[in-house]
């Protein structure tokens, strides 16, 4: 590009501030989505090289092994003494914690693996053949369901890897499911925003390359921006929300990653002259040949994608510093905008090399902010566009305004996603009460508390009488309105410590901790009386009288196993229905003896 006349500095500064504000919005939003501190990393690891023999039932014998061949290690990543081993076993003990929906979160597995809880296979990534080997399937993050009360149990991992690394990479910890999703969104927000910014600037550079006099210069900038923006998008954890195809995402990441030195070489060779130009031209041609060869062999199924990364990283570790050194040696001969781009790429290069070192285990795992380097390059591009095309300032301002709107919309969408995940997880969308999933978790917890503390626990099963007739006579909107009103009355008559759920359809359930049979029955009667006298009105139309039937069961009065309370309360409910409705019935042995359960199929 030739020497350009720069417009007033205030204009360039104003537009740079607008771009920085877009990035700041994403940064502030991502802080608000940080996961809480309830996560527990796994510690006290042991490892063993090789693969386990299998018994006649194809069950790994090492799961029961007490052999001294298990050795201690601080990290589950690349144990010492690998040699030529391609199989690795790791094991650890699950920590204690108060989780309602625990999962095991793993940043990455190298390359495929199985997870056993005790002697049960609970997760597998990739396909193992008869020799215990398998093809590379990509590097996604993993969220593995864990049963409750797993503290102290042994967690065992089996791995196969022909890559330079083997085992677990990054975070390995037990977390709440919702906190994993929050962390993924938090870790992705900044990268997604910067990626969108870079890709928009890449489009602008493409336009300038098509209509402007400096086509090769802006074409090289566009290629570098496309490659860095797509690489950032392909690496962000939220990619698994966009599309579930880890190998496809890693192929996109590899292609864009391998394109970076090609674009940089094209750009620098266009600016430089003499020996420096010839050296850089040779370097970018070598990288272009590798890009075509590597991706081509991968697509033909002749080479594993994972094996193409180490070769490229070795090349880049030499060629990238060499390119930048040649450019910096002639820094004074460059124009102002060319210097700005060289400085931005010089800032980006160490981050790229640091990310490479972390990926191959040369330094401990940490998050490398590649988005900062990409953002610096983007801001440099933005300034150049503004300086080079002063007559298009109004159009660029409109593009920046559109970009800010896109960032704000993406922020709002991500915020809404978190809220929807929270709501779908635990709440009934119609009544606002807890749903069946929440009740199952709370019921298990309260049963354990009742047994541990020898306290009473009562369950109320409630069902709206003749609910089908309400829908038939007044419409489903009226039926929904009745359910919403009943939910409000349940909240009003029961305590804050009681767990109230919509069990399904017109059926509700209430869990009353530390409540005797007499107290539970008294509350139920007051509730049923209140509902029977309540005037239900929908869209100005007064509905008929609404009544509820209720079944009650209490621990330990009716059973020594609190987990049976739900079934006993259900039997009592059917007795209430059978004996006339609009009443509460406390479970007793006579319920089963009189055979009320045989009448459950009658239309109540």
Summarize the model shown:
By secondary structure, the chain is an alpha+beta fold. The protein has helices at residues 9-32, 177-211, 215-235, 239-242, 246-271, 274-299, 305-329, 336-359, 370-388, 393-426, 436-453, 467-474, 476-493, 517-532, 565-578, 589-593, and strands at residues 40-41, 45-49, 71-73, 87-93, 102-110, 112-117, 120-125, 142-145, 154-160, 167-176, 457-464, 499-504, 507-513, 537-538, 541-542, 548-555, 584-586.
Structural notes for this entry:
This protein has 604 residues and is an alpha+beta fold. Helix content is 52%, strand content 16%. A six-stranded antiparallel sheet has the order 3-2-4-9-6-7, with no helix packed on it. Strands 12-13-11-16-17 form a five-stranded mixed sheet, with helices on both faces. The longest helix has 35 residues. The protein is flat, with a radius of gyration of 32 Å. The N and C termini lie far apart (83 Å).
Break the fold down into its secondary structure elements and pairings.
Layout: H1 9-32, E1 40-41, E2 45-49, E3 71-73, E4 87-93, E5 102-110, E6 112-117, E7 120-125, E8 142-145, E9 154-160, E10 167-176, H2 177-211, H3 215-235, H4 239-242, H5 246-271, H6 274-299, H7 305-329, H8 336-359, H9 370-388, H10 393-426, H11 436-453, E11 457-464, H12 467-474, H13 476-493, E12 499-504, E13 507-513, H14 517-532, E14 537-538, E15 541-542, E16 548-555, H15 565-578, E17 584-586, H16 589-593
Helix pairs in contact: 1-2, 1-9, 1-10, 2-3, 2-9, 2-10, 3-5, 3-9, 5-6, 5-7, 6-7, 7-8, 8-9, 12-13, 13-14
